[in-house]
Design a protein that fits this description.
This protein has 175 residues and is α+β, with helices and mostly antiparallel strands. It is built from 7 helices and 5 strands. It folds into 2 domains: 2-82, Arc Repressor Mutant, subunit A, CATH 1.10.10.10; 87-174, no CATH class. Strands 4-3-5 form a 3-stranded antiparallel sheet. The protein has a two-stranded antiparallel ribbon with strand order 1-2. It binds zinc ion.
Length: 175
């Protein structure tokens, strides 16, 4: 789960920025409810930046809030928390798409043979190599056939491992 979480935090960082991932980290670690000003002081950022981050995270479906009316002035107070269930679903979705990419890559490796330039590691499929008269498009050296057995084996291992994770998690959601 730790590895998955880091994965998710990186994903959030890439798509919504550092403050989003910092805010989310705090929310997951404590797994309780937070006021926006509490989060701002935890991550050492301005209140408006933190609010923006919270709305970004909300639009990804990762955090949500409940609100209560302040008895003193009648304004709403927002209590934010991480939606762990949805977070797990999101991770599962990402795994499925990685799995799909790996399967496509394996198919490509299985349906093609490959050639490589011994000087600059350019790798071409048979069709590409044929188009270039089996010469490197960069330095014109003769291309050499390479066995992609190791690549295929590694891909198969990854695919099996991911398939197992995905089906375990699917089971845990339908329980
Ligand atoms: Zn070359």
């Amino acid at each position: 789960m730790i590895e998955q979480l880091n994965d998710l935090l990186n994903f959030v960082k890439t798509f919504c920025g550092d403050i989003c991932s910092d805010v989310l980290k705090v929310m997951i670690k404590e797994s309780s409810e937070f006021l926006d000003e509490e989060l701002a002081s935890e991550v050492n950022a301005g209140i408006n930046e933190v609010r923006r981050a919270l709305y970004d995270l909300q639009s990804l479906g990762i955090v949500t809030y409940h609100r209560e009316r302040d008895e003193k002035d009648g304004k709403f107070i927002y209590y934010w928390y991480a939606d762990i269930e949805h977070l797990n679903q999101l991770l599962l979705q990402r795994k499925r798409s990685v799995l799909k990419r790996l399967e496509e890559r394996l198919k490509l490796e299985e349906e093609n043979s490959f050639y490589i330039c011994p000087h600059d590691e350019i790798r071409l499929s048979f069709d590409e190599a044929l188009e270039n008269d089996f010469k490197c498009p960069r330095c014109s050296a003769s291309l050499e056939f390479i066995d992609n057995y190791d690549i295929k084996r590694r891909l198969k291992e990854l695919i099996l491992c991911l398939q197992e994770e995905v089906s375990n998690e699917e089971r845990s959601f339908t329980r």
